[in-house]
Amino acid sequence: MTDKNLNRRQFGSDNYAGVCPEAWQAMTLANRGHVKGYGDDEWTTRAADLIRDVFETQCEVFFVFNGTAANSLALASMCHSYHSILCHETAHVETDECGAPEFFSNGTKVLLLSGENGKIDPAAIDRMVKRRKDIHYPKPRVVSVTQATELGTVYTVDEIKGIWSMCKKLNLRMHMDGARFANAVASLNVSPKEITWQAGVDVLCFGGTKNGTAVGDAVVFFNSELAREFDYRCKQAGQLASKMRFLSAPWVGLLQDGAWLRHASHANAMAAHLEKSLRPLPELKILFPRQANSVFVELDAPIREGLWKKGWLFYNFIGKGGCRLMCAWDLTEEDVNAFVADLKDLLLSAKS
Ligand SMILES: *Cc1c(COP(=O)(O)O)cnc(C)c1O
Fold this sequence. Notes:
- This protein is α/β, with parallel strands linked by helices.
- Helix content is 40%, strand content 14%.
- The protein is globular, with a radius of gyration of 21 Å.
- Bound molecules: pyridoxal-5'-phosphate.
């Protein structure tokens, strides 16, 4: 890495960003003196209480190290090994967790659903469940939805409720992978309860890492029956942090004065600005509706490589292809403008 690029903000992922000041400040405060371990501390109690305030209900909250652990352990708590989990074909639990959901549930099979723009079509759930009724088929038990989706789109309240009605009809539970839940809430401008427990979500994996913490995602059980012995599940999986306060304190920082939504709104606004700057360029094709903090765009290989050569980082293998330009909480309009200027230069020289 050259010095010049050392601190450049990028479009690779929102986990490229550092820790937000609110989370950092809370970590500093949590670092004073001695505190009991394993979550038996005031920071962890306060963080869980703040999450209950956010959702306006008595949910049960657990902090684990990352999103893969959150999803896998949450899903494992929702099914037996002979069950199946239904998710979109581009879902992180299917494509980016190295089989952890299957592993932690002792073999529960993941079945893939289709749907436009990274969202599950309720009719696809019906088809998958009714395809087979016999004992040889892994019994469908959970639908996992990602909010915001892997393609940067967002399920509306009605869309989540549409999936819920299908789940009720077919006796399925609903899990939500909310690695970018904050971006979805900011985008929809709804209260968090409207797109979770009031729309049928049993368990939410609430992401902090992509929105400004260093580490630590929350597993939020709206269905408390499913939370039974979840603490043992976490411990066995190596997910019970000894110095738990350093996972929970950042959440206090994020939640206590609304920083989580400010940061997510800002990231969304940067993606909107990026989209607005790219739309007028006729050589480019924007791939999905931009509803959260990423823009997917088709870039010819020479342009893509030209941008990489200029030091910009972004991926071109996520979801359904195209280049994913992910905007983090700390991205600035100047960063976006600098990227767009380089892109325009490359397009211009490609023409001549
Ligand atoms: C980042 C992400 C996760 C969590 O990934 P970890 O690297 O395990 O923290 C889960 N779901 C989605 C959609 C993500 O983008």
